[in-house]
Design goal:
Chain lengths: 244, 244
């Protein structure tokens, strides 16, 4: 029985790598992942074998990792953020039935909802939803239903994949749906390149967010009725009587 | 200007501490936190000053941390999990107006939604909600509204604080509300003492979850219509055509 570790490495820099993730990467025979992330590890571990595939070839990447593990090597599949939130943990577990000799272990990592929130302040201090606006794997009507439900529940909403070249209007459409219920002056924020060179962020209103030109490296936060701007930070108040 | 770092330390053991969190703790003059967590650090850092308060005295703890930072010392306020998800980042930022000489920096950590999901499999592979069943700071009718909205949106739901001695019926009430919409055979799971000695977990149905006797050290996961049990793991499928 060989082990395939599916490992979140956080938002990019070493700062947010956990001890467990580092141990798993150091002890693996084979490191597997999206070309861009894995290239950062090549120079540090010259003796390891590397398996990479570009974007959109996630399932092929999973198959290659499974084959490597099935042949008896210890494999670390690395994912940015957390492996279990829009990462590779799910497809690998789905594939496990065909590779019953591979033991899959999931190693948690810092996902963008958590790392991006820390940049803006404390927007997720109370109940929240995480929604991806990518309709590659989820039909757009389902995404719309979830946006409406999130607004009806007065949740804070963290949005992954807010827009891309092929989906330039998704964020504007999502904001319009949220504004059916949430006021246009709801406090929002976005963070780009979290924890990496060129990190930038902005706090703005939901009305302004609808016109923002962002990209797939950006994570968006939409406040709830308790979200405020305090000293330039986005903060969702949680009922503590702090300022009395 | 002195700095107060609000630092998530993950679910408990060193395994899930990030590099950044360890650096912040090592460089701080003062470590502040809930008695139980901070006691684990005392023996390791005998030269540091420690400030602790028991449960339910969070705001007093924040004031003491602010006073220490305001006096010119570097302070690390440690929180289990992530500081920005039901942690101390929010109340400290709310309090910042009264201590304008303190620079507050939030250091993200592995929250129980992420670490618990990794134990069960990959339950949060698609859009999800995080809801706390504690009505200490949020009125119960608001929690009910959010549970109904989460079910209406076919979200996976991660539940914090599912029950306690003072709230023995909250989880059963929450399950009843979710079952107004979600089928009773919806795949669910719970994890207790994540990443710590005595970790245990179970995968069960929503109907069975309604009768489960859990506690405040447990995190609960309720699946969506795409959640399955595969090889004993709880997995939310995300539309990849993996098993063809």
């Amino acid at each position: 029985m060989s082990t395939l570790y599916v490992t979140g490495i956080g938002p990019g820099s070493d700062a947010f790598l956990t001890n467990e993730a580092r141990t798993v990467i150091e002890q693996a025979d084979v490191i597997c992942g999206y070309t861009l992330y894995v290239d950062l590890l090549r120079s540090r571990y010259p003796d390891k074998e590397f398996i990479t595939t570009p974007m959109r070839q996630e399932i092929e990447r999973c198959r290659m990792a499974m084959e490597a593990a099935s042949s008896g090597r210890t494999v670390a599949m690395v994912c940015s953020g957390d492996a279990g939130i829009y990462g590779m943990a799910g497809p690998l577990l789905e594939m496990n039935g065909r590779y019953p000799d591979v033991d899959i272990q999931i190693v948690p990592g810092i996902t963008a909802a958590v790392s991006g929130a820390a940049v803006l302040g404390a927007p997720l201090m109370n109940d929240f939803c995480v929604i991806s606006l990518s309709d590659l794997l989820t039909p757009w009507p389902v995404i719309e239903k979830r946006l409406r439900a999130a607004a009806a529940g007065d949740f804070c909403v963290c949005i992954y994949n807010p827009m891309s070249k092929k989906r330039p209007n998704h964020l504007a459409k999502a904001c319009a749906i949220l504004m059916e219920t949430k006021p246009a002056d709801t406090v929002c924020g976005w963070v780009r390149n979290i924890g990496r060179e060129g990190q930038e962020s902005e706090i703005l209103t939901l009305g302004e967010l609808a016109d923002a030109q962002l990209d797939m490296f950006t994570t968006v936060f939409v406040g709830c009725s308790e979200t405020r701007v305090l000293n330039g930070r986005m903060v969702t108040e949680r009922g503590y009587e702090v300022r009395k």
